[in-house]
Specification:
Largest sheet: 8 strands, mixed
Strand content: 5-15%
Radius of gyration: 21 Å
Number of domains: 2
CATH class of the largest domain: Alpha Beta
Number of helices: 13
CATH superfamily of the largest domain: Uncharacterised protein PF07075, DUF1343
Shape: globular
CATH architecture of the largest domain: 3-Layer(aba) Sandwich
Number of strands: 15
CATH topology of the largest domain: Rossmann fold
Strand order of the largest sheet: 1-12-9-8-2-5-7-6
């Protein structure tokens, strides 16, 4: 029986994947066959596969990777296993030596506000030290890794380049490659898995909200992205980390995946997750996207919005957003919660243009640097300001997007619906 584990240790990636595919194809009863052949299922065809099983719930396989090793965990509140937190489950296992925990943006328990720096702490339940990777440093230091053999990454992502959990994964892989530590990525489905859209990031716009030359919506799981980061030589000095990925069982990208836990404080539900790839662009404008309300990333508005409907909202300070934009000001705008929201097939750049038309266009994009970093280029901002149609803007990056889709085939672990 072929274990659902993939190791990449000084092996040519293309060669290994080729061997992996041949092995899966030869095993007609293997549950990995669909993933191995990466077939695209016909439109509308229903799968009879069992419910997907995330990597962390494949506990015996995870334990096999960690037994007898000194373990560090890069996790947050989404990192559950067998109905409990992965840290608690591993810490209680006498065969596993959990040494420390690393926390990303929003902290280990996912409670810190957007952009809030997080300090080192001690977990009151297990007594384990929690090292913040969103405070004094974003990349683990040699001292942080010296007492570890392996670092596990298990965090729910939403499939968008500017969502910072994947930037944390990059820095962990980078440090592990430098200091000779293994990284194990436990995979979870991407709720925006079929969405591949937006310009490819240009090097001069690289930042913590965009580290890789991939589209805004990349259509990858974190494990697939980790393979891509390693395989394309995106780590410092083109080094490769010792990498193991544990895929999701019974998973086809495109099957609806409703997240059981909100991935961050301002993505409280599936509607916000589906709208996030589009509405995040408004963060670089004068508009509010509802931070400081009960429905962040589900509305758009501004106090001086012209030709708006009757919908209003007022951002207020709260734990999820301590200093929201337009705090205390009544905003007129649009409520997207009433729409029948499903997984998007493209980024809705048109809504950005539409909202600009309802206000003073000259001051609409008021944070050029942030807007450009989200887009990964200044081309979108220039296109909007010049009045270019968004269909023409999409055509401007179509060739690069096609090249990306061809390149990513080497790293796909799952069939796409």
């Amino acid at each position: 029986m072929f274990l659902r584990r993939i190791n990449y240790d000084n092996v040519n990636l293309k060669t290994f994947v080729g061997i992996f595919l041949l092995f899966c194809i030869s095993c007609s009863n293997s549950t990995t066959e669909a993933q191995g052949t990466m077939e695209v299922l016909p439109e509308g065809e229903k799968t009879t596969s069992p419910k997907p099983v995330v990597a962390a719930d494949q506990y015996e396989l995870v334990k096999q990777e960690l037994k007898g090793k000194r373990v560090g965990l890069v996790v947050n509140h989404t990192s559950t296993s067998g109905g409990q937190h992965l840290v608690d489950r591993l810490h209680a296992d006498p065969d596993i030596n959990v040494v420390k925990v690393f926390g990303p943006e929003h902290g280990f328990r996912g409670e810190a506000s957007d952009g809030e720096k997080v300090t080192d702490q001690k977990d009151p339940k297990t007594g384990l030290p929690i090292i913040s990777l969103y405070g004094k440093t974003k990349k683990p230091t040699k001292a942080m890794l010296d007492d570890l053999d392996v670092v596990v990454f298990d965090i729910q992502d939403v499939g968008v380049r500017f969502y910072t959990y994947i930037s944390t994964m990059h820095y962990v892989m980078d440090a592990a490659a430098k200091f000779g530590k293994r990284v194990v990525v436990l995979d979870r489905p991407n709720p925006n898995g079929l969405l591949v859209d937006g310009p490819i990031l240009k090097p001069e716009f690289q930042s913590f909200i965009g580290m890789h030359p991939i589209p805004v919506a990349h259509g990858l799981t974190v494990a697939e992205l980790a393979l891509m980061i390693n395989g394309e030589g995106w780590l410092t000095d083109r080094k490769q980390t010792l990498l193991t990925v544990v895929p999701v069982q019974n998973y086809t990208v495109g099957d609806e995946w409703i997240l059981p836990i909100q991935p961050s404080p301002n993505l409280p539900n599936q509607t916000s997750i589906y709208l996030y790839p589009t509405l995040c662009f408004f963060e670089g404008t004068i508009m509010s996207v509802g931070r400081g309300t009960d429905f962040p990333f589900q509305v758009v508005g501004h106090p001086e919005l012209e030709r708006a409907g009757d919908f209003t909202f007022t951002p207020t300070s709260r734990s999820a957003s301590k200093y929201p934009k337009l705090e205390g000001k009544e905003c007129k705008g649009i409520d997207l919660r009433d729409n029948e929201i499903g997984a998007p097939s493209s980024i809705d750049f048109e809504i950005v243009v539409e909202m600009m038309s309802k206000t003073d266009a000259s001051s609409f994009i008021d944070r050029n640097d942030h807007f450009d970093k989200c887009a990964g280029t200044d081309a979108l901002r220039k296109a909007i300001n010049s009045g270019m149609s968004m269909s023409d803007f999409r055509a401007s990056y179509a060739d690069e997007l096609a090249e990306y889709l061809e390149m990513r085939k080497k790293y796909l672990l799952y069939a796409r619906r």
